[in-house]
Amino acid sequence: MNAFLQADIALWSLVVLLILLISAWQRFDSRISSNRWLILFIGSSALACAFDILGRIFEGLPGPTALMMNQWGNVLLYA
User: Range of 20's domain?
Assistant: First the structure.
């Protein structure tokens, strides 16, 4: 896997998660418990993906979370 593809996977994953987080924050009432858990899950996934991007920068490989989020992004893109 070349460096450009690795960076693309990690950055695309973070973009998808940030879009989901902004969308969930705007559409759902955060005072309801189930919506609060959804926003918390998406936010923590974005944080995990950011750590994977840092791993990509310092170690040269995207982490498993970034690869999984890339697959979710592909499903959302083509659904």
Answer: 3-78
Report how far residue 14's alpha carbon sits from residue 66's, in angstroms, rounded to the nearest whole number: 8
Number of domains in the chain: 1
Q: State the burial class of residue 58 (Cβ atoms within 10 Å of its Cβ: 0-12, 13-18, 19+).
A: exposed
* Residue found under tokens 């926003």: 39
pLDDT (tens digit per residue) in 60-69: 666 676 667 6
pLDDT bin (cut points 50, 70, 90) of residue 76 is low
- pLDDT tens sequence across 28-44: 766 777 777 777 777 77
